[in-house]
Amino acid sequence: MTCQDVQASISLYLYGELDFAREEHLENHLAECAFCQLTLAREKQWHTLANAHVLEPPLDLLAQCRQQLRPALARETAHPPSRRSWWRWTNLFDISATRWSAQIALASMLLFIGFASARWFDRGSDRGSLQSGAAQMSLLNPASARIRDIQANGPGTVRIVLDQESEITGRIDDANVRSLLFAGTRQPDPGVRFYSVEILTQQDGAQTAKDLREMLFNTVRNDPNPAVRLEALEGLRHFSGDPSALETLRFVLEHDDNPGVRSQAVNQLVPIDGSVTVTPAMAQVIADVMRSAPEDEYVRGRCSQALREAKLPLTY
Amino acid sequence: MPGALERTTETDLVRAAQRGDPGAFDELVRAHDHNVLRMAYNLLHSEEDARDIYQEAFLRVHRNLPKFRLDSSFSTWLYRIVANLCLDHLRKRKVRHEEGSTFQAESGQVDRLQFIPEHRPDVDPQRRFESAEVNSRIQEVLGDLSPRERVVFEMRHFQGMRLRAIGQALGVTEEAAKNCLFRATQKMRAALGDFV
User: Fold this and answer.
1) Radius of gyration of chain B from its Cα atoms, rounded to whole angstroms
2) Looking at residue A159, what DSSP letter applies?
3) Alpha-carbon gap, residue A223 to A236, rounded angstroms
């Protein structure tokens, strides 16, 4: 077992999740390797720090929960949740949902209602320009409407720009869906940005997509949220041979203020499992980073380890 | 926690509860509810949300118990329900906003840092400052984990569940749970690296 193997397995070792043989190899290695002993000590330390964070629910909360569960169970036993409420309508027509003929009749009725109402609303829209604002408002629910902008629009009138609540479901490789996902990476909500990046980078053929490449470089460098930057960094793995990706990793290591992001960047630059051969360009970046990030012990440690293992001089 | 009851006893209790014995259902609840509440509270940092998860989880158990075929242990089934409820909550929250350093308790806004034990902070202000720094870093990195990483980390690190049980609870392979834990520990290690 090598030092890289130990680094990759150390947490699982502490959790007791390694199989017997692997645990045996790791312990044999630990017995002889001072570097890995230090790593283990540090690993134990952060486990201890994290343990101090565990919260115990307030004492009375459990009692309250138990107290509230009883009447809730009693209510549910007395009135079990019924099927969807619209289905109860069928009782009015004495339709049994278990009969296929009745199901077809019900489906036809719903289809007819849908068709007829679409025709009705379509006719209404021909007269849309004549409708009063109040009439249009009746279609909206002011409590749930999201207002993007409000402007005075001449005497007595106002222009209100609403964010329409609408939903789209489609294939990720569809051009329209894809462009919406790219738009998602620029939204103010970090959750939306995170999932947009995650979904885009998990697609087949991601490694050849130029638009994705540009978006990732930009997100890694500029997104204000570290979780989004980490996700974009993950995506950069698709472009690991690309010189611009190397430059982006250098940028992160030199300028990102989040230690988690920097650590992920260094692990991508020189993977713990030793799966990447250190090229001269990489060695230069590593040496530069060691010069410019003297305070980040983890990054420096990984960099110097990579140079040692590649048998390159420590040029910092 | 899984394994809190002997398997046979638990199976007997489940069968009795399925036959409509309220005492057996009550016993199942009491065997697990403290850990359910603790997990929800630690993941969501809100008394109100933890209370909702508690109630919804046991209502679902009660509702679906007649259909439960004992093809997994009761605790695995229960934790699947709890984990999915927490995941839904975290995903919605992650989309809505990032978590702050305070949470809503019945008594009002509470800073979660106050729950962290201090070692004679009055004597050593430097230590108190560092402890607050550590906790703020832990909050930051926990908030940055994906909902699934967060749940896996909580179940393994704080609840002490085995990865196999976590995989079963989340409906993923043990390997997938292991990968999630690996990513979470990488991020924790990186974030706390400056303090160890």
Assistant:
1) 19
2) E
3) 14
For A289, the enclosing helix (H) or strand (E) is helix A280-292
Query: Residue A214 corresponds to which amino acid?
Result: E
DSSP string, A130-147: GS-HHHHHTTS-TTT-EE
Structure tokens, A111: 């289809």
Region B76-102 average pLDDT: 76
Is the pLDDT assigned to residue B59 strictly greater than 90? yes
Length of chain A measured in residues: 316
Identify the closest residue of chain B to A55 by CA–CA distance.
B42
Contact B28, B21 (CB under 8 A): no
Q: What residues are paired with A162 via a beta bridge? A: A147
Residues in B closer than 8 angstroms to A49, CB to CB, are 134, 138, 192, 195-196
Longest Cα–Cα distance of chain B, Å, equals: 60
Tell me the C-alpha distance between B73 and B77, whole Å.
6
Dist CA A215 CA A111 (whole Å) = 44
User: Rounded CA gap, B163 and A229, in Å?
Assistant: 28
A residues 15..74 contacting B (CB < 8 A): 15, 17, 42-43, 45-47, 49-58, 61-62, 64-66, 68-69, 72-73
Q: Are strands B108-111 and A158-163 parallel, antiparallel or unpaired?
A: unpaired
CB contact under 8 A, B192 and A50: yes
- Domains of chain B plus CATH, in order, are 7-195 (1.10.1740.10)
pLDDT of residue A117: 54
Mean pLDDT of chain B: 79
Could you tell me if B11 and B70 are in contact, meaning their C-beta atoms sit under 8 angstroms apart? yes
Q: Burial-class residue A249 by CB neighbours within 10 Å (0-12, 13-18, 19+).
A: buried
Within a domain: A111? no
Range of the domain at A39: 3-48
* E-state strands within B46-159: 102-105, 108-111
Query: Is there a domain that residue A309 lies in?
Result: yes
Q: Give the pLDDT score at A125.
A: 42
